[in-house]
Design brief:
elongated; 19 strands; about 450 residues; alpha+beta; single chain; 3-stranded mixed beta sheet
Length: about 450
């Protein structure tokens, strides 16, 4: 039986309805396929937003799950007017940020590539250094006796960069220094022409006096070092090392003198040992002593070693004008014709300088047990001092050092001390030149008068 038009119409409507019903799942499926591609990042719950933002957020909740992922949240932020649609200007802002971020990514990528290349170059450098070190280890060996790097199978020393080493010379105590000084003077007086590392006290058979300028080359011991250190210095000097000696002076002053360099010559003279010394008990034995002269740059440094300590002397250790010196050493730290004068800013330190009349040095007149000045023709003068005389910058330092046991004060220690206070002005012909508390007085054993 053929269908009626009504049935046909129902059939069509039903088909249309079915078609609509079929279309809806298809569209929903397409929508679902769109949301599958969303980013799986941190999500924001719409209910956590403010009421004004919740309405706006619902327009960008593409899958209707009540949450906004990072992409949906970014779209909502770029929607400035809140209508749920992105205008051309808003899309333009999104593209600008995208391009800017892309440029930053490219810049960071270039920086990472450059750093990677740099690290690669450093790795190659370290690899080359490691290979070179391995080759050197196979081709070189360390000589423990001389502390040198030598080529394996030969005695050739590998060239290395020169470096200076410094040894410290110590101060001698007062008794040791004076005993060494007296020993030097005695030995030179007994044999002035003999070979002596403290130089000559006399020329020919002429005895040195204050008028004889034959003592300018005497140098007394000024410092002390352990013999083990001096032996170490000798070893390093033989190897051509640069070696310096450092000294300290009262007041904090220091100086450093060069001992060895590439052109240094060293002379060693062993001291004689007695049979008793050689065959003595093992516990009483000391190292054999020796004398060593180190000549460098035209100056000498002498070491007199007794088996335990070495005493230093030589013109290398004498300071020139302006150099530091020890007041308690007299002028032993200064070059000839210079004296150690007390510094104006520090009473404990001294400076090597030329002495003027009012700064003339004082030394001991052992025949009369007095301190006299290094001059001639005046009551305080004891004649020109010899190099062997220990000189002081003031009569007080000289008297306090040697004659503190004498009674009578400085007037007992210094002859005609009043004349020194009057600065030695000769008033024989004009007594009125004496000013203030000074008076023109004739002095004992002199036919002249002086302000005193």
């Amino acid at each position: 039986m053929p269908p009626s038009p009504l049935e046909d119409s129902a059939t069509v409507d039903s088909g249309s309805s079915n078609s609509g019903m079929l279309d809806s799942p298809t569209k929903k499926k397409r929508r679902s396929s769109f949301t599958v591609k969303k980013r799986h990042g941190r999500k924001t719950l719409i209910r956590d937003l403010s009421l004004s933002q919740q309405e706006k957020a619902c327009k960008f909740d593409l899958n209707g799950d009540g949450e906004l992922d990072e992409a949906e949240l970014a779209m909502m932020k770029y929607d400035k007017d809140g209508d749920g649609d992105l205008t051309a200007l808003e899309i333009h802002a999104i593209v600008e940020d995208l391009l800017r971020d892309r440029g930053s990514i490219h810049a960071m990528r270039r920086i990472i590539i450059a750093l990677s290349c740099f690290v690669f170059i450093l790795s190659l450098s370290n690899l080359g250094t490691s290979i070179a070190s391995a080759l050197l280890v196979k081709e070189t060996t360390a000589d423990t006796a001389t502390a040198e790097m030598k080529i394996v199978g030969t005695q050739d020393v590998m060239g290395t960069q020169a470096s200076a080493e410094t040894f410290e010379a110590l101060e001698m105590d007062v008794d040791t220094r004076r005993a060494r000084r007296a020993m030097v003077v005695q030995s030179l007086l007994e044999d002035p022409q003999g070979e002596h590392h403290h130089r000559f006290l006399a020329k020919g058979k002429v005895k040195c006096t204050g008028q004889k300028k034959c003592d300018g080359d005497i140098s007394f011991d000024v410092n002390v070092m352990r013999q083990s250190d001096v032996e170490n210095i000798k070893t390093k000097c033989d190897q051509g090392r640069i070696v310096n000696v450092k000294r300290s002076f009262p007041g904090g002053s220091k100086d450093s003198k060069g001992l060895c360099n590439s052109g240094t010559s060293i002379t060693i003279k062993q001291k004689k040992m007695t049979e008793k010394y050689i065959k003595g008990p093992r516990k009483d034995k000391k190292k054999p002593g020796f004398q060593m002269n180190v000549r460098s740059n035209g100056v000498d440094t002498n070491f007199d070693c007794d088996g335990k300590d070495c005493y230093l002397s030589g013109d290398n250790l004498l300071n020139g004008p302006g150099g530091p010196c020890n007041l308690n050493h007299g002028s032993d730290d200064c070059k000839p014709d210079l004296v150690c004068i007390q510094s104006k800013n520090d009473v404990t330190s001294g400076t090597c300088s030329v002495a003027f009349w009012d700064e003339a040095t004082w030394y001991v007149d052992w025949d009369n047990d007095q301190c006299v000045q290094n001059c001639e023709g005046a009551p305080n003068c004891g004649g020109l001092a010899g190099r062997w005389d220990e000189q002081f910058t003031s009569y007080t330092l000289c008297c306090d050092t040697f004659f503190s046991y004498l009674g009578g004060g400085y007037n007992k220690c210094v002859p005609d001390l009043d004349w020194h206070f009057g600065l030695g002005r000769d008033c024989t012909d004009n007594p009125n030149i004496c000013k203030g508390e000074f008076q023109c007085k004739s002095l004992k054993d002199f036919d002249r008068s002086y302000c005193a």
